[in-house]
Design goal:
The complex is a heterodimer of chains A (about 475) and B (about 220).
Chain A (H helix, E strand, L loop, with lengths): L5 H8 L1 E4 L5 E4 L2 E4 L5 H10 L9 E3 L9 H5 L8 H17 L14 H8 L7 E4 L13 E4 L2 H10 L1 E4 L3 E8 L8 H12 L7 E6 L1 H4 L3 H9 L8 E3 L4 H7 L8 H11 L12 E6 L6 E3 L7 E3 L13 H14 L14 E4 L7 H11 L10 E4 L4 H9 L2 H8 L2 E2 L20 E4 L14 E4 L2 H10 L5 H4 L11
Parallel strand pairs in A: 3-4, 3-5, 5-6, 8-9, 8-11, 9-10, 14-15, 14-17, 15-16, 17-18
Antiparallel strand pairs in A: 1-2, 2-7, 12-13
Helix pairs in contact in A: 2-6, 7-9, 13-15, 13-16
Chain B lengths: L5 E8 L7 H4 L19 H4 L31 E3 L12 H9 L3 E4 L4 H8 L4 E4 L2 H13 L4 E5 L4 E3 L5 E3 L4 H9 L3 H6 L2 H14 L11
Parallel strand pairs in B: 1-2, 2-3, 3-4
Antiparallel strand pairs in B: 1-5, 5-6, 6-7
The chains are: A alpha/beta (about 475), B alpha/beta (about 220).
Chain lengths: ~475, ~220
């Protein structure tokens, strides 16, 4: 057989039918659901008199709307103050009950952000196709699963048919060679990649991340990188299977049990690109060149390193791009040539499907330990990605470090990443955020988001403005697989 | 889904690259559990000067009179002219729902984000990709001539300008077929039920760990 990329292999393993018009029916192994993009899909099923094709492929949990304050959460769905949020979470609950779909309900210990919950449970496995009505489904590609976001019509389509109508994407390899420097994390890697290829650079491609720097990164870090493939325009991000993948999955609740484990592992070991596989596009970065990153604009590609300055639109030749910079600077309240380290902050958010896993919290806690959040900040919050992440962090005493430093310690959910719940920025406020999108209004009307790693966010919280975490605190190399 | 065959309509030029789905429809409106009613909040943060909330009477809100869709000359536009990477960001299908609810049937741009592209065609919204130079020319014409209209003919795949020029565009034959017939693609897929069944049976034998029959998940 001809050499194949990982994406080619996953595609072939799920090809139900190739149609003459170039489209294909692709089988879906795992479908994750949450409250925002599913109600209209369930309604569609109901109106058409259809039922879910295969119940055991589906897993639901509310995440986008759930409050993160302990007080509001304590009373469950009934305690959600915002009526429209409450109705949406209730609707998911009703739909899961009436269609018999498994759900980790609002106060189940396993509830959390879908993209944290799936892998944590072993509900995401190598070789699966994984979809969810959320663009950050790319996260699951860290496990060599073919995973991507879908819209609500496709949520309904998957529920009804266990398939999607697809066209094959092109293959891109992003290789990060060498070793990352101390204090440089997976988040910095993916922001640097987006800065390099642009927010539409991956459109039409499945991006595989490879190279020695990626091999050295833990599953948490790989999830951070694949999570933001969509911010480079690619629906799919992938990393091949290795020991780190397999060790992560061992003994997860929904991973194969003893009887099937060895056969599964043997199958998973095949899930890497063949050595001589051909990619349509290859991008190479040197790990040693990557420094801690900070976005200054309103698109994730508007990024520079901590010692950089805000760019001058007059120096950009592409007219559309220059106009975009002018508009971004106006929205962000920044001026050309301003130093990144001079940007003062109002709030800090550590959380989201990009950076709310245990390793992210450990990284932030290492910086925060023994220090105090700057008095000039209105708020610094830490929102764990799931109930189990929260429990693990508490078992390690991380919450005490955060609370002692002046951070708020919250209940799990998407929170201020997209501000559908009560956690949001005020107009004009600057936020150091470990989330994935710095779009206008994303974290609140008029809010100004700067995307950074958890360590950089924690350091910024202490300083009140951006600082180089490498100067700020001597922290050990992150993202090496300690487990 | 509403059929799309031909659309002759007023053109509104939105001169901005990387328009993301948060900009098309901000998150607070995603709390709706319906498919309709998003039109009044399309481009909410660009159209209004205040912060919008769900269920609000928008007629009392202060308008940003500079925003293209608030200019009287573009009232009733059904063709949106846009810049590259339109629809980037989240997978929210509320974005095409808001565009169609507002009255748009066509968006023309040099490029679109993948998920938005997929979602739009499932809602009778035709996305047309034209090269940067052609889009630039259409921008100049739409901005320069009041009442500028385009005639989009899906059957022959052309955008016809007032001067009589026919600009050809590419569209996937499956998507074109679904749009022109107004087809429900779930119904189409279920015609292949036998193929799905036999694939599933083989998949289950080869990779049993992907199935947890009788057990949830």
């Amino acid at each position: 057989m001809a050499s194949q990329t990982l994406y080619d292999k996953l595609w072939d393993q799920h090809l139900v039918k190739q149609r003459e018009d170039g489209t294909a029916l692709i089988y879906i192994d795992r479908h994750l659901l949450h409250e925002v993009t599913s109600p209209q899909a369930f309604e569609g099923l109901r109106l058409a008199g259809r039922k879910p094709w295969r119940l055991d492929a589906n897993l639901a949990t509310p995440d986008h709307n759930v409050p993160t304050s302990f007080k509001e959460r304590a009373a469950g769905i009934a305690g959600i103050a915002d009526e429209t949020s409450r109705i949406q979470v209730q609707t998911l609950d009703d739909n899961c009950n009436s269609f018999n779909i498994e759900q980790f309900t609002i106060n189940d210990a396993r509830q959390g952000i879908v993209h944290v919950v799936g892998p944590e449970q072993g509900a995401t496995l190598p070789g699966m196709t994984v979809v969810c009505g959320d663009s950050h489904t790319a996260t699951h590609g860290a496990f060599a699963a073919l995973a991507h976001g879908i819209g609500t019509s496709e949520v309904e389509h998957v529920l009804a048919t266990q398939c999607l109508i697809q066209r094959k994407m092109k293959n891109m390899l992003v290789r990060v060679d060498g070793r990352l420097g101390t204090g440089v994390t997976a988040k910095d890697v993916v922001l640097a990649i987006i800065g390099e290829i642009g927010t539409a650079g991956g459109t039409g491609y499945a991006i595989e991340f490879g190279g020695s720097a990626i091999s050295d990164i833990s599953m948490e870090g790989r999830m951070t990188i694949c999570n933001m493939a969509i911010e480079a325009g690619a629906r799919v991000g992938l990393v091949g299977v290795d020991d780190i993948t397999i060790n992560y999955l061992r003994d997860r609740p929904y991973a194969p049990t003893t009887a099937q484990w060895d056969a599964a592992v043997a199958d998973w070991r095949e899930l890497t690109s063949d050595a001589d596989a051909a990619f349509d596009k290859v991008v190479v970065l040197k790990a040693e060149d990557i420094e801690p990153q900070v976005t200054w604009g309103t698109s994730p590609e508007q990024v520079t390193n901590i010692h950089g300055v805000v760019p001058d639109p007059a120096a950009v030749s592409d007219e559309t791009e220059a106009r975009g910079i002018v508009r971004a600077l106006e929205y962000m309240g920044l001026s050309a040539h301003q130093k990144i380290t001079d940007i003062k902050l109002d709030r800090v958010f550590i959380g989201s499907c990009t950076n709310s896993r245990i390793e992210d919290l450990r990284e932030a806690a290492r910086v925060a330990e023994g220090r105090t959040v700057a008095a000039s900040l209105k708020q610094a919050m830490v929102v764990p990605g799931s109930g189990l992440v929260k429990a693990q962090a508490e078992a390690e005493g991380l919450h005490e470090i955060f609370l002692a430093a002046g951070f708020e310690w919250r209940e799990p959910g998407c929170s201020m990443c997209l501000a559908m719940n009560a956690d949001k920025l005020g107009a004009g406020e600057h936020c150091a955020s470990t989330s994935n999108r710095n779009f206008e209004g994303r974290q609140g009307f008029g809010g100004r988001t700067h995307l950074v790693s958890p360590a950089m966010a924690a350091a910024a919280a202490i300083a009140g403005h951006f600082v180089d975490v490498r100067d700020f605190a001597p922290i050990p190399t992150s993202n090496t697989n300690a487990a | 889904m509403e059929k799309f065959i031909r659309q002759q309509g007023l053109v509104a030029p939105l001169d901005r690259a990387n328009v993301d789905t948060d900009l098309i429809i901000p998150k607070q409106f995603l709390k709706s559990i319906k498919r309709t009613g998003f039109g009044p909040n399309l481009f909410d943060e660009l159209r209004y000067l205040d912060e919008g909330y769900i269920g609000q009477d928008v007629s009392k809100r202060p308008l940003n009179t500079e925003f293209v869709l608030n200019q009287p000359r573009y009232a009733g536009a059904s063709v949106l002219l846009a810049r590259r990477n339109f629809g980037c960001g989240s997978s929210r299908e509320h974005a095409p729902w808001a565009l169609t609810d507002f009255g748009f049937r066509v968006v023309i741009a040099p490029s679109f984000a993948d998920i938005f592209y997929n979602n739009s065609f499932k809602n009778g919204l035709l996305l047309i990709t034209l090269d940067e130079d052609t889009v630039e020319r259409l921008f100049n014409e739409a901005q320069g001539v009041e009442g500028y209209r385009l005639d989009v003919d899906l059957a022959v795949q052309t955008v016809n300008t007032p001067s009589g020029e026919a600009i050809a565009f590419e569209v996937d034959s499956f998507r074109k077929h679904c749009l022109m017939e107004g087809l429900d693609d779930i119904g189409l897929t279920l015609k292949d039920q036998d193929a799905i069944d036999s694939f599933e049976a083989r998949h289950r034998t080869e990779r049993p760990w992907l199935f947890r029959d009788g057990q949830p998940v």
